[in-house]
Protein 1
Amino acid sequence: MESEYINRQFNYELQQQIGGTLPKGHIYCLGYPGTNLLSAGLLNLPIELNSNRLVKKASTDYKHPFDLQGLKDLPKAINEPIMIFESTKRDGSKVILVELQYKGSNYVVVMRLQHKGRGRNNALINDIRSIYPKDNVCGVFDWINSKDNLLIWVDKEKALNFISVQSTNLAGNGNEIQSSTYNIIKNFTNGK
């Protein structure tokens, strides 16, 4: 199956990057959006990630440093997300909450359409603009409860599990937030 090959290839290249043998500027090819991503509005275009961006995002100079090893199976995780949101920036980016974690915090992957190349070689891709562990779970609950309808796709089983696990991290009005969030997820319809 092609998706299994893409996942294995990504893991192989990721291990090269961790070991310092991946060429600088390498572009990871993460395949194409699956059904879940397509139903959230992503276009059926290649998903790519620049290895330089990955180094920058994982760096201790960045506000959410993480260990690259934790990104093993990223292509699979992206195509089997927990939830997908519109970006609060309203720039067309999609924010994808995945099951991969770093120190108990789920990763978010921010993806948007980007032109690649120039002239006749110009092509559109789904470019991973950012990736980091979302250590502020209240932010995710805010996205779900947003009056701006940021939530655009949800795997109900995974999302309800996420809420039950993460609600222990909420302080103060956690029960009220958890109840509201639970109801939104339970009643959400994908593709509306």
Note: The chain is about 35% helix and 25% strand.
Protein 2
Amino acid sequence: MLIKLLRAERMKLRRSPVWLAFFIMPIVPAFLGTANYLYQKEILTREWISLWTQHTLFTDYFFLPIMLGIYCAYIMRLENNNHNWNKLLTMPVKRSAVFLSKLITAAKMLLLSEIWICVLFIAAGYITGLKNPPWASVIQWCIFGTLGGMVTVSVQTLISMNIKSFALPIGISLAGGLSGLAGLAKNIGHIWPYSLMSYGMNANAPQELTKNGYLQFVLVCIGYIAIFTLLGSITISRRDL
């Protein structure tokens, strides 16, 4: 039944306007980050690493949180409009599966966004004259950024399910992204939910994680995802028609 729900969510997104946000929004921080890197090239001497810090400075704290807010808000908006919740929740499916299908759909959008961001980063590096991209690091940043971003997705899916407004959850996600920057500055980025995405992507290179550090990061992310998924499942199970 979960597979059928996922197919239904995929069909809803086929000609969705969220794809405009997916394609266009990451280009803006990529352009700004590249321009900032070229302007300060005499100071930013670590080449690919320096370029990455400039890209993620704009992406992880502003644009990507907004994108995730849009994804989650749009997925839930389809049900919040025209009393679609009543139709959906009277279907012979587990309500927890309904929430899980929306969470997985938003997570897939997150993964695609991470890949697109990394593609733009590599392209920007070649355009600025850099050679030999650090492929292992880029893949690592993408994987751990996706895992950390899934924490944000789980929070935003829960928030969007409970708030009918489309804009308010997006604003909350942006505020969360800014709080993530503050969390890193206060050295709690490894435990603050909205810091984990930028922490995993090594945004602005604030930390050098060891194997034990990554293990802790993975466990914290899984813990948060499990907690918010459980809260979402309980909330939707008790939802009135």
Note: The radius of gyration is 18 Å.
Protein 3
Amino acid sequence: MSTTSHLRAGATMTDITSPLDISLAGSFRASYVDKVFEPLRANAVF
């Protein structure tokens, strides 16, 4: 009797940078995103 096992792996990266002119939470005054210094990326390995 033979048994086989399979190894499955994957990786992904996606850009989750907020769009410009979106409102920011946590302030008493309304403030908005006006510039992006670096893109925000999410990585996952499974």
Note: The chain has a mean pLDDT of 88.
Protein 4
Amino acid sequence: MPDAPIKTLGLNHFFGSGDARKQAMFDINMDITRGSLTILMGPSGSGKTTLLTLIGCLRDVQDGSVQVLGQEVRGASEAMLVSLRRRLGFIFQAHNLHESLTATQNVLMGLQVHGGGDPVRQRTAAHHILDLLGLADRRDYLPGNLSGGQKQRVAVARALVSNPEIILADEPTAALDKESGHNVVKMLKTLGDKRGTTTVMVTHDPRILEMADRIITLEDGRIVSDTHP
């Protein structure tokens, strides 16, 4: 698939060194379609998060190929990797909010990594995405005054506010109730349909599988099924 925003070919990965070296990923081959919502499933230790971090340029590609937005990640310069990361949005299971910043300020950080920009427009964009996620009355709250689910929604807002081309999400609905989780995934689907945003999501949440365009299941570092529901 020539225009696939994410491609892996013969991807292997190892942890440790010497006698302790252990292979964690085996010959991962996949092309992810632009605008699609792909879910990675599998038991703990199956390689889901490792694969996500390799795609996200957060871990060195050791063996095989990973191409993101047309760029080969393996062997890329740090400047190229930084440039690629700025085109991605990350939603981690641990929300990683700055405790001394308000919800709005945390979201603004998702824009400020790109540098420049009109501060008024940036604040308007931050407020808009927080409002969409049901946090209009929590814009000026510090994380210490937010529930776990609210913190996670702020983290989602931070990832989405810059309109990234790819969103990489690790258990984004784990801390959310059914309605909030459904709304977050629905928003990701809408971004895919309207803007061509591509989402790869690690989840164990059976409530959102029906919304996926594709489900890839990993076991022991290998793809064991690849379905299009």
Note: Residues 57 and 81 are 6 Å apart (CA to CA).
